[in-house]
């Protein structure tokens, strides 16, 4: 592992770009190699075996690029495949998931009743509720699977009538009644954070994993003496398993001119 090696990040699609964007903002000297598994999107309703298989293939690809860290910028893969990724990384790279830093943040916050929204797989895994129960038994949790949101966002539907209707339909459900915090348990959801905030009109604190995870990563790299401190204007690398226009548009939106997009097929 080497300070100037890249940070590898992966997700099923554009969601992990919300994490990548925050990493680039907070640690501008870091080079990012991003893999969006658009061919297998969405991960939210696939079997655990499939998610582990995809995650291992991508991790092997990122390790071949000598990444010093592999960030699973996907809650679904973090919930179902973190141990498999960690085992592959061993002493070659640091494995990071997007769930543990959010649990830690939420348990230290003033939350008394926290809602969690995510894909079917993330919510069914019960990972948020069970870890919160262990760390902070008095904190009430309320979970709701919101499976339409990932395809909606991937198709570019946000800040419009359709997304507003779908979102309100989910957020007004009894499952989320009387919460004071809401965890965006899917890395796609920061793209609709503003709409969620508009829905709650300041009554609910939104927990955005992209910001929390990037701070956690900075601390981890600093503690292990792997933070790149040589000033450089990095060109990031983006790979997708299947080229989509919406991925390119989102990568451009988050990273401006500095994108270098390739279609990379893994076995
Ligand atoms: N961004 C992924 C997550 O955080 C989306 C999963 C999907 O592809 O359904 O779970």
Structure description:
This protein is an alpha/beta fold and 267 residues long. The chain has 2 domains: 144 residues, Rossmann fold (3-Layer(aba) Sandwich); 110 residues, Rossmann fold (3-Layer(aba) Sandwich). The protein has a 6-stranded parallel β-sheet with strand order 4-3-1-2-9-10, with helices on both faces. 47% of the residues are buried. The structure holds D-glutamic acid (DGL). D-glutamic acid binds next to helix 3.
- Reported by name, the CATH topology of the largest domain is Rossmann fold
The largest sheet, given as strand count, sense and whether it forms a barrel, is:
6 strands, parallel
Give the overall shape, derived from the CA principal axes: globular
The H/E string reads EHEHEHEHEHHEHHEHEHEHE
Give the ligands present: D-glutamic acid
Query: N-to-C terminal Cα separation, in Å?
Result: 26 Å
Report the uncertain regions: none
Helix content: 40-55%
Q: Which class of the largest domain in CATH terms? A: Alpha Beta
The structural class is alpha/beta
Average pLDDT level: 95
Beta fraction: 15-25%
- CATH architectural category of the largest domain: 3-Layer(aba) Sandwich
**Number of domains as seen in the coordinates:** 2
- Can you count the beta strands? 10
Radius of gyration over C-alpha positions, nearest whole angstrom: 18 Å
């Amino acid at each position: 592992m080497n300070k100037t090696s890249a940070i590898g990040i992966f997700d099923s699609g554009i969601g992990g770009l919300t994490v990548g964007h925050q990493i680039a903002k907070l640690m501008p000297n870091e080079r990012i190699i991003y893999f969006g598994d658009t061919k297998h999107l969405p991960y939210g309703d696939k079997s655990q075996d499939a998610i582990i298989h995809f995650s291992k293939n991508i991790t092997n690809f990122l390790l071949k690029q000598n990444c010093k860290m592999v960030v699973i910028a996907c809650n679904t893969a973090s919930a179902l495949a973190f141990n498999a990724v960690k085992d592959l990384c061993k002493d070659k790279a640091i494995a990071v998931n997007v769930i543990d830093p959010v649990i830690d943040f939420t348990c230290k916050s003033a939350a008394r009743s926290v809602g969690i929204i995510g894909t079917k797989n993330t919510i069914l895994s019960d990972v948020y509720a069970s870890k919160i129960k262990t760390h902070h038994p008095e904190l009430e949790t309320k979970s709701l699977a919101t499976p339409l949101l990932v395809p909606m966002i991937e198709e570019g539907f946000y800040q419009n009538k359709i997304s507003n209707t779908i979102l309100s339909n989910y957020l007004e459900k009894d499952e989320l009644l009387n919460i004071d915090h809401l965890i965006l348990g899917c890395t796609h959801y920061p793209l609709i954070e503003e709409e969620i905030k508009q829905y709650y009109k300041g009554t609910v604190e939104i927990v955005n994993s992209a910001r929390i995870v990037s701070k956690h990563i900075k601390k981890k790299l600093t503690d292990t003496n792997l933070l790149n401190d040589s000033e450089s204007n990095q060109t990031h690398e983006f790979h997708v398993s299947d080229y989509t226009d919406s991925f390119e548009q989102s990568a451009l939106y988050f990273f401006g001119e500095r994108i270098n997009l390739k279609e990379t097929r893994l076995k």
